Amino acid sequence: MENLRSAMKTDVPHDDITGIDTAKTPLSVLLASVNPNDPPTPTHTMAIALGSNLGDRFANIETALRLIEHPRNLLVGIDDAAAVSVVNTSFMYETAPMYVTDQPRFANCACLIETNMEPRSLLKLLKSIETTVGRVPSIQNGPRAVDLDILLYDSEIIDSRAEDQRQTLDNLANELVVPHPCIAEREFVLRPLADMIPEFVHPVHMKTIRTLLGEVLRQPNDEFPMLKVTPFADYLKLHQLPGICPVPSMGKYWSMRCSNDRPTKVRMMGTLNATPDSFSDGSVNNTLSAALSYAVTSVRQNADIIDIGGYSTRPGAAFVSSKEECQRVVPIMQAIRSHEDQDVRSSLISIDTFRWEVAEAAVQAGANCINDVHSFTGPEYPLTQASAEHLLKMREMAHKLAVPVILMHSRGDAGSNKDYSQYKGGAQEGVRVELGEKVEAVVRGKGGVRRWFVIVDPGIGFSKTVEANCALLREASSITANTRGNPLAGYPQLIGTSRKSFLGAILERPDVDGTYRGRKTQPKEREWATATSVACAVQQGASVVRVHDVQHMRDVVAAASAIWSY
Ligand SMILES: Nc1ncnc2c1ncn2[C@@H]1O[C@H](COP(=O)(O)OP(=O)(O)OP(=O)(O)O)[C@@H](O)[C@H]1O
Ligand SMILES: Nc1nc2c(c(=O)[nH]1)N=C(CO)CN2
């Protein structure tokens, strides 16, 4: 019988659960060389379902996960060698309450852990975590701050009840039944499991998780449909429990439909370059008041998030130290957070940086999300040992902060002498493989970033030819398509085309019959071309478009969303 551990390898090859090795790709080899001291693999793999429908739901779940990662904080007298590592997470979902329907919607997800603990001790640990997070006794299937269920323990079948008590589910209190007896009827459990172990064969039903999910989905259901969500962190409001890092409040979130992985609403990211050499707005925003005024204007024009960067990614941009980068962005975050207008003060902000120290300073100053054009490996390309070390540092920081991360495909900084023509299998396949490998390294293994915090970006305009940019854009939905073996399957996607030079290159071309000879454009003169590319991104199912001119692109997003019937 296939066990849980090998099921984890099904879709993407991995030697071990840390997500490193086997494929012998450059990044995996580099990571293994800088991270040789992983603890010996504990003996058991277990799947846990997490749910919450009271209080700060996503923060409750994050708190529970942190407590799971530190079992000795809670269990007195527990074996000193007890070890639990969260090694994989699902996406996060918002779901209609099942059974007792008159209660708030749930947040639901699942994780895989590796442990040397026995199932009974784990159940005790989970019950104690539920209490610590704030669960109080209530009606059966009623509202709760957090619920933690053991879904699977290797491929074992366990039932602690007496033989004659096993006919119903009425006698479960203080007992242990594994696999959890309700898995097969719960979409809110099967979807998260399918994100991680779709090919795992349920040891009782003898069907894969994918098959069980298909069966549940075929049943008629007129409930509120399950949504996939990205929660945002707010460091100005913290939940503090002894023994674990503070957990940010997570009241705001974006959502996608599970039926077609399209957003319930396409989000607009405004772009604020706090750099004197920015390619698109020169030094205009390079003062605190000008930056603040862009932020205020964008919020009033309905931007959903503002991306603030202090280090230009423009080809040939001057080096900026991390101290200088912080000095450029942190005061802007602080000014936004103390603005008199409540809408501005509470707007979502993302920090555009590839450096962990800048990201952390910005988040502590009020940024809600990290946007990294090098998807955690830093500016070097080809990847080196320093890239692998960079990834581990970024990952540790993002894991600790529990904030969303936008991971963009690029091949390092936009230096000279780089050959961008080589994408094995074409641009789509190249991005899926290269970005997919990094995303896997970020999400999987002990200390990984929760899957629900990752947004992917194909990196239009970075390390690609004009033709590759066009091809990526017109087929962007295939990058995150739910096809077997796609490491980017199901992730929300951000697309940034605004004013980029591939649009400039297109506008410079003469038309086919030569009646129009083309013209050179400044970035600001590419707004109509930008509109076309934004419409295409919406049509392709992008969750977020990154733009400069929020007011005009809002109309484009509204019209394109209506045409493609969101
Ligand atoms: N696999 C399991 N995971 C968690 N609890 C279990 C499991 N099997 C049996 N139990 C028992 O179920 C009892 C009720 O747990 P709990 O109050 O969390 O149920 P619930 O959350 O209302 O329902 P459900 O577990 O169906 O989601 C606990 O006392 C526990 O001993
Ligand atoms: N959508 C949803 N419904 C539920 C859930 C849950 O986690 N999600 N948990 C329950 C009892 O454990 C009862 N009903």
UniProtKB/TrEMBL annotation:
One Pfam family recorded for the sequence: Pterin_bind
Q: Which GO terms describe its cellular component?
A: mitochondrial envelope
BP-aspect Gene Ontology terms: folic acid biosynthetic process; tetrahydrofolate biosynthetic process
Q: Which domain of life is it from?
A: Eukaryota
From which residue to which does any coiled coil extend? none
Q: Which family does it belong to?
A: In the C-terminal section; belongs to the DHPS family.
Designated name of the protein: Dihydropteroate synthase
The record lists the organism as: Rhizopogon vinicolor AM-OR11-026
Its ancestry begins with: Eukaryota, Fungi, Dikarya, Basidiomycota, Agaricomycotina
